[in-house]
Amino acid sequence: MASNRHTPRLARLAVVSAVSALTLAMLPGASQAAPTTTATPQTSAQAAEQVQKLAQQLDAMNEQTLYAKVTLDKAKAKASAAQRNAQKIDSQYEAMVGQVRKMVAGVYMSAPFGEFAAFLSSDSPQNFLDQLSALDRVSAQRSTMIAKVGEAKSGLDRAKADAEAAVRAAQAKATDLNTQMAALKQQQATWTTLYNRLSAQERARMGGVNAAIDPGNLPPANSAAAQTAVNAAKVIANADPPHMYVWGGAGPDVYDCSGLTMVVWGKAGVSLPHSSREQYTYGTHVDRSNLAPGDLLFFYSPISHVAIYVGNGVMIEAPTSGQPVKYAAVRWGSYVGATRVG
Hints:
Layout: H1 7-26, H2 44-110, H3 115-120, H4 125-197, H5 200-206, H6 224-237, E1 244-245, E2 254-255, H7 257-266, H8 276-279, E3 284-286, E4 296-299, E5 305-311, E6 314-317, E7 326-329, E8 335-340
Parallel strand pairs: 1-2
Antiparallel strand pairs: 3-8, 4-5, 4-8, 5-6, 6-7
């Protein structure tokens, strides 16, 4: 019978093997041509570091999925608006067609004794000319109406085509989102298995990349809204027990990065989407030298992480799975920009 003293090493080897496989699976283009070799961690510390790197890759994957959901919501809204527009134009078109039908029916009801009888009954040349002029105006109105009906029909065709295209785009985005969500859940389950195999000491080492810090005395924000958002972030960062990072989390006890910034700015009355990439399009972009508490900080290219700035080079963030919402030094090496939303 094998000795129990080999069990920790066997568990570590299982983590190393699974980490290597998951790393290959998550590399860009892995489904087409995965590398034949990969760096294998030799120590538990290296295994923990690789598990954390996988978590960060999953963070990016999570944000990509959230962005896909936001774009899907936009596509649905566009499709609904296009359909409403088509219905409105369709109603206008039907009303104009009804007017033309009445006009045509009136012409047939009066012919041949209507218009021509008016000419024959004129008792003077001037009266005849006046009636002729009136008939010309009626004829012109008919031509104008018919032209408008034609324009309305063309507009209706375009509106229906736009609506159909918008619906198809929304359906395609929904399919894409479902695919991304399925892949994300599968990878998250694999990561959770790996994480659970790490010891408490190994998990503690994972916090080294995004170490929490003492924020010290922080400056006030420049606006009441920004101060409200910062205060809300401080409450979450100081919570006991701590509020942990969870993919897709948006409170009240778990958060991902964009879920955190969405919630704290929501306390200030500012509505943000649950996507770091989409949040980057909100508010006014500010230079690094002009940062103020409450500004949103964005990281990586493409953008896949966001935090809230609280001053003195410090931010509050939901960093990555297995770690709590906390104060951290701004990582300028991966910083790409900032926005001011209130």
